[in-house]
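Researcher: Before we compare anything, I want clean individual predictions. No alignment, no superposition, just each chain on its own. First chain goes here; please echo the sequence and then give the structure tokens.
Model: Echoing the first chain and its structure:
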Amino acid sequence: MSLPFFVYGTLRPGEPNHALLLHGRTHTEEPGRLADAVLYDGPGYPYAVAEPDGGTVTGDLVTVPPHAYAELLTALDQLEEYAPGAPHNLYERVAREVTRAADGTRVRAWVYLAAPRVAARLRARGTRIEGGDWLARRDPPHDRTRTAQQ
């Protein structure tokens, strides 16, 4: 299933893993929001944790050209240390509804959420990022709507 990706941490434009993996390889990047989730600070990167009736996580909805999709999906799974069904995953890649900030439309996208054992640990003793925006923890908001150069 070829879905866009919702990125909320180090894969966002201007962040180190965006430069490493996404810069110049995306079709579009636009602000979006993931409902019913909260954000926790990890060791240099965040974790989104699903929380029914929870908060909202701010990020970017990234679309990828079809010719680059399989390679990029593999690269992102490796970065997030995700393997389908693996018991020691840090993240699980799941399809979730994401709201486009520009017009409020909803789209299904891949999201890397904290794996169940990680989510339980974060709920018990993690540091929550208030407001759900990884970038706002240190930077003022700015316009981040872009179309990548092909």
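Researcher: Okay. Second chain, same rules.
Model: Second chain and its structure:
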Amino acid sequence: MDTILIRPKNKTQLEAIKAFAKALKMDFETKGSESPYDPDFVKKILKGREDVKNGKGVKIAVEDLWK
């Protein structure tokens, strides 16, 4: 059989799709919209961005990268 990937835009749509699949006795699985990234990694990236906004860090011109 074919596989159909449906991306509901809100919780109401999600619940309706689940109810429809259950009514037809269809097998289905749900995967959360959680980030595939490690939360510690995300924290480090966000901290780095915040540091740059606060003037911390060093800028290097592209021309100087391989000197």
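Researcher: What stands out in the second chain?
Model: The chain has one domain: 11-62. Additionally, Residues 43 and 49 are 10 Å apart (CA to CA).
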